[in-house]
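in:
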């Protein structure tokens, strides 16, 4: 089957209008064909409403822009393969939309074009969605070498739908400190629907938000290199039910965290503050045995990459809030850092930053107040006792608890097995108690479930919110 260019696809196969063609009644392509989406350049534009049809497969080549006023619809079950040599990246620009509504039985998959067994983090660029909602840096250009701006005043802006979607092996460093994540959200508004999204093997952050007001539910960050959830530039949405699982031998060249949160890169007091609220998150880091943890770089299968850092790294004036969540198996559980002259610790004391009704378990060191680098290059978890973070986490009324080992959580399996990381608390687990929904930040807009973390005691291996659409072995999946 000969690959066809996207222009031929748009003109001859998928449009009922268009592209200068005289064909008023185009014939759909035969089922199961493969098409190129993009021409391999860094400036390909989709200029007319377009539908990617199941069961076709699409090769994403170069930077493909869905421009202002245009909607890209992706049918359930469609597979889009990112091209490695051209750094295939899909960018939904301000005013454009993506309508990617998959189903539990037929999720939409963005993945590597490499063969099974040869796929790696960073095989292609990733998915970038940009909107007109507020951020604290005004209009700005999204990172990653992309031409597009984001930001505005429309808090309810609608960039479309991502539902039952997987993004695999994306995330590239376009240039130094200029990366494309698995999924990047730039000033995306609350009119956008985000739920049931898995990002696996990202070469940078799994999910990163630069400002915006969008809400989300049911997110999975699996075996990413850098941060699982990165919040910047005034992101103020609500996120509930999220799972993160790390691989112990692959971390980013900078410190890799579960959460990394800044108000912005300069730690300014610009508003809106990064004040997103997360609830029911379960994060499992790389440290299976805290007592045997090695701080050296990985040399064999028993070591943990020394570039891993914290489950929660809160810094640079962030006012992030995390409720009813689990932070497990990281070198450090919680860092609350006053770097660059910021007042992050003040926001915690005043209740503008929250870590409340949460559990830290199986960490080498539970708390730090700053980050230290032994010898200028490696993270040293013993260099800071974390007096402020300790006192804050264990404050009266905070509802937080800490446990020495993963086994203390009384889970139904081993979350660090990687082959099947979805585990559930037993009825006598500490995760089955200690939750609270009375804080004003979580009193509305959240499901008031009776457990801490992403899963409850009533869920099972065959009946939970990841069942049927998640894939924890995309390396060996034949697409």
């Amino acid at each position: 089957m000969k690959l066809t260019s996207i222009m031929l696809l748009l003109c001859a196969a998928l449009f009922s209008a268009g592209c200068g063609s005289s064909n008023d009644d185009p014939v759909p392509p035969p089922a199961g064909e493969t098409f190129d989406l993009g021409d391999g350049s860094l400036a390909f534009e989709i200029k007319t409403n377009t539908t990617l049809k199941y069961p076709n497969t699409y090769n994403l080549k170069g930077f493909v822009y869905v421009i202002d006023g245009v909607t890209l619809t992706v049918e359930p079950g469609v597979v889009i393969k990112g091209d490695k040599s051209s750094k295939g990246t899909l960018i939904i620009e301000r005013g454009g939309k993506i309508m990617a509504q998959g189903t539990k039985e037929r999720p939409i998959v963005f993945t590597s074009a490499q063969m099974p067994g040869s796929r790696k983090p960073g095989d292609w660029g990733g998915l970038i969605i940009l909107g007109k909602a507020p951020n604290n840096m005004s209009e700005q250009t999204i990172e990653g070498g992309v031409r597009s701006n984001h930001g505005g005043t429309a808090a309810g802006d609608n960039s479309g739908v991502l539902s039952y979607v997987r993004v695999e092996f994306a995330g590239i460093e376009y240039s130094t400190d200029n990366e494309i994540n698995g999924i990047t959200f730039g000033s995306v508004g609350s009119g956008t629907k985000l739920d049931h999204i898995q990002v696996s093997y990202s070469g940078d952050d799994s999910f990163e938000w630069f400002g915006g007001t969008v809400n989300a539910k049911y997110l999975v960050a699996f075996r990413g290199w850098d941060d699982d959830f990165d919040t910047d530039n005034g992101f103020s949405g609500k996120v509930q039910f999220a799972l993160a699982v790390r691989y112990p031998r692959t971390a980013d060249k900078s410190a890799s965290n579960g959460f990394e949160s800044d108000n912005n890169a300069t730690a300014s007091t610009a508003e809106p503050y990064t004040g997103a609220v997360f609830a029911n998150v379960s994060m499992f880091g790389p440290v299976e045995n805290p007592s045997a943890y090695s701080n050296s770089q990985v040399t064999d299968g028993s070591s943990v990459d020394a570039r891993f850092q914290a489950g929660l790294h809160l810094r640079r004036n962030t006012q992030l809030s995390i409720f009813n969540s689990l932070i497990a198996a990281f070198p450090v559980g919680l860092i609350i850092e006053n770097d660059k002259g910021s007042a992050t610790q003040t926001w915690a004391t005043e209740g503008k930053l929250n870590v409340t009704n949460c559990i830290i378990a199986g960490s080498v060191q539970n708390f730090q107040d700053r980050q230290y680098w032994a010898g200028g290059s490696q993270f040293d978890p013993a260099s800071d006792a974390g007096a402020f973070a300790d006192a804050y986490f264990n404050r009266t009324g905070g509802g937080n608890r800490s446990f020495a080992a993963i086994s203390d959580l009384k889970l139904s399996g081993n979350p660090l097995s990687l082959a099947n990381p979805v585990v559930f608390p037993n009825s006598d687990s500490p995760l089955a108690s200690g939750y609270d929904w009375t804080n004003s930040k979580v009193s509305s807009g959240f499901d008031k479930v009776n457990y801490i973390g992403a899963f409850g005691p009533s869920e099972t291996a065959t009946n939970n919110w990841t069942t049927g659409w998640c894939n924890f072995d995309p390396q060996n999946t034949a697409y």
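note: The longest helix spans residues 6-14.
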